[in-house]
Amino acid sequence: GNSEMKLMSTMMALGLTRLSTAFVHMQRASYYRSTLTSMAVNEITVHQLKELFNGEDVAASESVLTFNDVQMIDVREPDELMVANYPSPGMENMEDRPMIHLPLSTMGDWAPKVLSGELLDKSKPIVVACKVGQRSMQVCQWLESQGGFSELYNLAGGINWYSSKVDRKVGGPY
């Protein structure tokens, strides 16, 4: 569609050809996991994410993740956040939620800030989430290949699995 073309144009303009290519393949291939999964991108389960939200340490692939040290990114669109969103114990305002909201459609706006180190810390682990795990995998791959980030975790199944397997109160699945 038109929004996909605009996103691809933005990615190409930023020199993000690998991500743009990955995006095209993801759009065309239902078997994206077998063709696009990066060996350097780890996976985190929805149960591990719940443990992080509860303040528990999580033994992950590369290190022990703690709520205060991990950077959590949600790449879904703003309207998707209204349908289902991650819990924020004791935090009533959207601004207080633990996830950094970086919609994939606005990557042209936030990508330079990520690359410059203004938005994310390369020395800290990053968990990336979306609806089902496809867009978050794209962003993980971009963070690795273009941004030089090394400890990346894609949330398997995204908010839909979180909703269906951990906590239905968050909304969804949608």
What features would you describe in this structure?
It contains eight helices and seven strands, in the order αααβαβββαβαβαβα. The protein is globular, with a radius of gyration of 15 Å. It has helices spanning 2-13, 17-28, 32-36, 46-53, 78-83, 107-115, 134-145, 158-165, and strands at residues 41-44, 58-59, 64-65, 71-74, 99-101, 126-129, 152-155. Mean pLDDT is 82; it is low at 28-38. β4 (71-74), α5 and β5 form a beta-alpha-beta unit. The chain is 41% helix and 13% strand. α1 (2-13) runs antiparallel to α2 (17-28) and α2 runs antiparallel to α7 (134-145). The strands form two sheets. It has a five-stranded parallel sheet with strand order 1-7-6-4-5. It is α/β, with parallel strands linked by helices.
Which features does this protein show?
174 residues; alpha/beta; two-stranded antiparallel sheet; 8 helices; 41% helix; globular
Topology record:
Blueprint: H1 2-13, H2 17-28, H3 32-36, E1 41-44, H4 46-53, E2 58-59, E3 64-65, E4 71-74, H5 78-83, E5 99-101, H6 107-115, E6 126-129, H7 134-145, E7 152-155, H8 158-165
Parallel strand pairs: 1-7, 4-5, 4-6, 6-7
Antiparallel strand pairs: 2-3
Helix pairs in contact: 1-2, 2-7
